[in-house]
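Note to self: keep these together.
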Amino acid sequence: MTVETDWQKELASAFTDPKNLLEHLGLNPNDYLADIEARRLFTMRVPRFFADLMTKHDPNDPLLQQVLPLKDEFLSVDGFGQDPTQEHDKANHGIVHKYENRVLLIVRTGCAVNCRYCFRRHFPYNEHHNNRQQWQDALTYIQKHPILDEVILSGGDPLMANDSQLDWLISQIETISHIKRLRIHTRLPVVLPQRITSGLVDRLQRSRLTANMVLHINHPQEISTQLSEKVAQLSRNLIRVYNQAVILRNINDDAKTLMHLNEKLYDNHIQPYYLHAFDKVQGASHFYVSDEQVVSLMREVIAKQSGYMIPKLVREIGNRKSKTWLDLSLDV
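Structure:
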């Protein structure tokens, strides 16, 4: 068995039934019958590796809370919508060109793990086929816009594509002379570190493009020994690794957890990059933390931690040409 088919086999064995995940963790599924119904709104998918990072018999485990369907997802709350960042109508041929110098390419529509707070849980992925023809259409668009100097591979999760597919796509991007940088936004290595194959690392290392990988880690418990080893492999090959997190109620909405996350990221050669204020997506209102509360938390973090460990606190606002930094001078 090759390394690549190994991670694909592991992914195929992921938990998709909440009852099985709960039993694996020593929790009684009968206590969650009303919650389990929420998977009809958004399917559940949790790799076994990620499940094994959870604390058994703990219903409040911060990793479990990110992936377990809850009845709160049925709530209709004012101010929460299906397209909180206003990007659904901007997607064209699998690309989203919101920012002047960079374009987001939707490589794959699926993810290795379905986070319940996902701001794209209602994204019309069915309208984006993500095959080589659509990729070619996107590449043509990129070629025609010399103002672009960076391509961001996103999704879904771009690392759901295999190494051969990514090799083809990267090779095509490399032929576009005005593109200088390649960025990969992914959560897959966090929930299944085996996805960082030697072939993928080698392909990124020998690219003429400056390669950057942006992980999505919300809690220090997600940083496993296996992930640390894979990040070290990337770093040795001059591939920069960053992290963006989302502030989530009862998961990381306290200064102690945020500081622990920042320090553990930094100690494992992952640069804290962004901390996102929560996007008000329909079905996830139970994760919401107010801007005032987030600002208060960040003030405490800044007062106690070295500046190079602290991510930028930002919000995504539709139709703006960049992310919006939250004002830490706000009176709260």
